[in-house]
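Practice record 12: protein with magnesium ion.
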Amino acid sequence: MIRWEAVIGLEIHVQLATQSKIFSAASTAFGAEPNTQACAVDLGLPGVLPVLNLEAVRMAVMFGLAIDATIAQHSVFARKNYFYPDLPKGYQISQYELPIVEHGRLEITLDDGVQKVIGITRAHLEEDAGKSLHEEFDEFTGVDLNRAGTPLIEVVSEPDMRSAKEAILYMKKIHSIVRYLGISDGNMQEGSFRCDANVSIRPAGDAGYGTRTEIKNLNSFRFVERAIDFEIGRQTAVLEDGGEIAQETRLYDDVTGETRSMRSKEEANDYRYFPDPDLLPVVIPQDMVEAIRGQLPELPSEKATRFCTQYGLDAHDAETLATSRELAEYFEHTARHTDAKAKLVVNWITGELSAALNQDHIEITESPVSSTMLAGLLNRIEDGTISGKIAKDVFRSMWTGEGDADTIIESRGLRQITDDSEIERLVDQVLQDNPEQVEQFRSGKDKVFGFFVGRVMKLSQGKANPKQVNGLLRKKLK
Ligand code: ADP
Ligand code: MG
């Protein structure tokens, strides 16, 4: 039996967050009435000329620096010719032989903690096409050209990934970087961040590559993962059956979870690329690159490293927090306002808080429990006012708007019982009420101990200090 290994390379399209389009002054704002944001340049009307948006160039350079790439001092726009209703000019302005960014790299952290480098072949600037709307009209297809001319960078990876999981880790990291840099909103529902996945398989250990298929336009991490896994399974079945893989473009159907053939793969020479005579080469002076480098924010991996040293976090926690700039800021703000250990802060953020955010489908920036409020809650755990268990109830109450931790603890009388004589009274009562279990425990059934702890906690409405309860129970049961 052959053991197959998957080979995956991603092409990620990132919409740049410029105000205006890459070659015109039309707005890039999402959601406008169809065809209200496409000007003569976007439509390719005769006699107009494109003018390059400097901001798009700056953003591409920022991205290149963030992935340790080479920034080309000289890059060239090229026409990629094809016919499609949402491409009014009959060509897309892209970059071909001389892209603005080349030879980058990115590290991903695998499940076992091992770091793996993924090579980034290139990232080039290009314009987006318009959109064909097939669903709104009977018998007709609508064309909305608002998106035509929106700036994109297309980030092309080396075929360095070996599983859907690795592909997702890589894609998430790129997503995180563009959001940190502020060069894209990364909104996948709105199509600001989408991916074509190239997949092939080969017998494990082989040095060459198998024939690949390309799955187009995946706009969620989940779809990318499912589409790749489906495709690996499909190709394995074809080859084990003695068949051959056709090099083709496939579509992922999120209803069936399957990919299906769309067209045979086009070759570069099908596009008749040639330098766009309407645009000058882009020349980027070194001092501009250095100026941009000086303005780069702290990036996810740098932040994660700092979190490890500054807060003593382990690599996994540090990376989880650093994935999003907003999450990282929430963590640091909370940590600064509490005496609780950083690890406790992390556990609350990745535990209760994340669960609540997910459940209500909101972002951390919209959290009803602010970092200051969470810090206040953790302080009350830290100073022994409440137990971790009660803290969860207080958290729920803060979430639903009952006020800050101190207010809720006071108004609901949730202070922990730490008075020894009061706890002793509760312990005595539980032992008295359960003579059978006391007998069992004394005859060697250790497990019953947990039963007593549970009863005392219940009797105290969760307020008794668990450590004291344990101690007193042990003493009394001896
Ligand atoms: P194209 O522009 O025609 O799509 P490229 O050569 O630029 O082709 O490759 C596009 C992507 O396909 C890259 O991300 C690359 O890593 C990936 N790729 C190339 N060959 C393979 C292969 N055999 N298996 C999987 N991915 C591949
Ligand atoms: Mg491609």
